[in-house]
Design goal:
Shape: globular
Order of helices and strands: EHEHEHHHEHEEEEH
Number of domains: 1
Helix content: 25-40%
Radius of gyration: 17 Å
Strand content: 15-25%
Largest sheet: 6 strands, mixed
Structural class: alpha/beta
Distance between the termini: 26 Å
CATH architecture: Alpha-Beta Complex
Length: 189
C-alpha cells in the first residue's frame, strides 16, 4: 500500500492542494508539532482545513503523537548516527510507546483512505518525516514523497538505519556482534 509525504514549504496553498489532488490524496495528516506557520500563514490549521474541505480532502492534526522537535532521551539506544540533535531526539522518541501508538493510528487511517503526512520542510531528508517514513517502510508501506503536482520520489531507507523487530536505531557505526544478529538483520532464518 502507498502512503505519501509532502512538505508545505513556502509555496502557495493552491500548489499544495493541486499536488494532493494529483496524487489522489484523501486525507492530509499534519505531523507538525504546532499546526501553524508565522511565515506561511496559509498553512495555519484553520485556513488549511477549510481549503482542504472544499476539495473533499480530510484534515487530521497528528502533532501530539507524531510531531517533531523532540529532545534526545539520552537513553541506552544508539541513535548517534544522526549528527543533528533534532533528528537524534526524534529517533529516540520513535522508540517510545507514544510514537508507536501514534504510528498505529496513522497506519489505520492510511489503510482506509489514501493519506499523505505533511510537515513544513519541502524535502523529507530535512524533516522528521524521514524517520516516520523509515518506520512505515520497515512495516511494508510503499512511501512516496510528493514534490509537486507532477513529481514524486520513492522513499529510500536511511542508509545507517538498523531495523530489528519493530524498532529502528541509527548508530554511528554498525557492527554485528554475533552471527545470529547478522542473520536476523539480513532477514535470514
Amino acid at each position: 500500500m502507498n502512503i505519501f509525504t509532502i512538505g508545505h514549504s513556502n509555496r502557495a496553498l493552491s500548489e499544495l492542494v493541486d499536488a494532493l489532488l494529483a496524487f489522489r490524496v484523501e486525507v492530509l495528516a499534519d505531523v507538525r508539532s504546532l499546526p501553524r506557520s508565522r511565515a506561511n500563514f496559509q498553512f495555519n490549521q484553520d485556513i488549511l482545513e477549510r481549503e482542504l474541505t472544499q476539495v473533499a480532502i480530510a484534515y487530521r492534526w497528528m502533532g501530539p503523537g507524531l510531531g517533531g522537535y523532540r529532545k534526545s532521551s539520552g537513553g541506552g539506544e544508539d541513535n548517534s548516527g544522526w549528527e543533528t540533535p533534532a533528528f537524534r531526539g526524534y529517533a529516540d522518541y520513535a522508540l517510545t510507546d507514544g510514537f508507536r501508538l501514534a504510528l498505529q493510528e496513522l497506519v489505520s487511517l492510511a489503510k482506509e483512505r489514501s493519506t499523505a503526512i505533511m510537515c513544513a520542510e519541502l524535502m523529507y531528508t530535512s524533516c522528521h518525516r524521514r524517520i516516520i517514513s523509515d518506520y512505515l517502510a520497515a512495516h511494508g508501506w510503499n512511501v512516496v514523497h510528493i514534490l509537486d503536482s507532477q513529481r514524486s520520489i520513492p522513499h529510500r531507507m536511511t542508509p545507517f538505519a538498523r531495523v530489528k523487530s519493530a524498532r529502528i536505531t541509527y548508530p554511528r557505526r554498525y557492527e554485528v556482534s554475533t552471527l545470529e544478529d547478522f542473520i536476523e538483520d539480513e532477514g535470514g532464518k
